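Holo prediction. Input below; ligand is flavin mononucleotide.
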Amino acid sequence: MANTGSAPSEFPDAKADGLKLLHRICTRRSTPPRHLAAPGPSEDEIRMIVQAACRAPDHMGLKPFRFIVIPPDRRDALADAFEAAERELDPDIAGEKLERAREKASHAPMLLAVISRVQENMEVPEIEQRASAGAALGYVVLAADLLGYGAMAVSGRKVATKAMHRAFRLANNEGLLCFVGIGMPAKVKGPPPEPDPELLRTWQPDAGEAG
Ligand SMILES: Cc1cc2nc3c(=O)[nH]c(=O)nc-3n(C[C@H](O)[C@H](O)[C@H](O)COP(=O)(O)O)c2cc1C
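Structure of the complex:
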């Protein structure tokens, strides 16, 4: 928080703290759900994670996202839903392939389903609402990391199936964006690659795209 007046700032080290956070953000890695061990976040921590997600940029405050916690004791039901989704994608699926699909439901002590929901709105087109849900997902992963957990967004073709839509009782304007696995990382990746400098350019109005 910036120190705007003569009164001493409530957070004198805000910038130093911010730089530490920024470093955490820039060096964060995802941990695949199969490498996430117990414990997962507590109920209070889940609330904090969702509170952070709700600070995602959100034009007109539409909240074009919501979250569904899948606790450890509902994993058999999730495995059934995964199986139904895979059967919808491939009616002939069987054996090991099916077992692997079911097994994914047991990974990570905590799974959070991220739902994107698009509302009819003259001011806020669909692309903005979907972007907001994506940003909220990013904040979930960052908040989990800042609380000391590993996390990763995972999806697969199954998330777009009718079976998953039914299993999560989604409304017509909703879609299952992904699951976020959260837990203690049993395996940690190395540092992330440096971002491609080409990803940032300065606008050159007369030079077009070539810059
Ligand atoms: C909506 C969404 C779904 C994703 N689904 C998968 C997935 O199913 N499998 C996968 O390997 N990565 C998936 N990813 C990417 C990972 O979450 C992660 O960003 C990527 O592996 C890079 O890892 P890093 O954060 O360590 O650099 C997904 C990302 C998003 C935003």
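The first strand starts at residue 36 and ends at 37. That is the main takeaway for now.
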